[in-house]
Amino acid sequence: MQGYILKTARAKNEDLIVTVLTKRHLFTLYRFYGARHSILNLGYKIDFETEYSSKAYLPRLRHITHLNFSWLKESNRTMIWQQFVSRLHRHLEQLYEVDGFYFDMLENAASLWGKQNPKRTAIQFYVKLLHHEGRIHPLNKCFICEGKIDKDLTLIRAFLPAHPRCVAGAETISKEGAEFLFANKRTLLLEEEEIEYLWSLLLEGF
Length: 206
Description:
The chain is an alpha+beta fold. It folds into two domains: 2-71, CATH 2.40.50.140; 116-203, no CATH class. It is built from five helices and seven strands. The strands form two sheets. A five-stranded antiparallel sheet has the order 3-2-1-4-5. Helix 2 packs antiparallel against helix 3 and helix 3 crosses helix 5. The protein is elongated, with a radius of gyration of 19 Å.
C-alpha cells in the first residue's frame, strides 16, 4: 500500500517508530534499524507492507519503496512540506481510521508543490480542509466580539475572522482576497505579505 510519513521517532538503538497516513488509516509502525534508511523521512511518500505478530506491540514496516517527487531536491520546498504534514499529523494523531480526504489532499498538494509558491498551495489546501470539516466561519462576523465586519478584517488561528482591533498584533487582510480564498480555494488576490501572515497562522496548528 502507499502512504505519507507524517512522523518519525527514535526508539531503542537505531530503530524507528513511523507514522504513515494511507487512504483509510493512520498507521503507527516499527522499523528495525530505521534510522539507517534515508527514505524514512518526514513527508516522504512510500510504498510499503505491514507485518503483524502476536509477540510485538506494534506492526512492522516492511518492503519499503520511496515514491519520489522532483521538488524534494529543493530544500526550501521540502522544509515547508515537512512543516505542513507535521501539522496535519498533530491534527489527526488520535485517529486510526481516517477519511480518504486527507490522503487525497496530500496527493493533490504534492502534485502542485513544485509549480507555485508552496505556502500558497498549503493555504489553499488548508482552506479545503476547513470546508471539509465544516469549520468555515462567516467572514462578516467577528469571532471575538461577534460584531459585524464591514471593512477591516484579520484572521486568527483556524482562519477565523476578527476585527484587527480585537486581536493584539493581528495583521489586516484584504476582505476581497479572503472572500475569494474561501469561495474558490485560491490565493490569487492575496499579496505576499498576507500569504506570510496566513502561513504563520497555519503553523500554529490546524
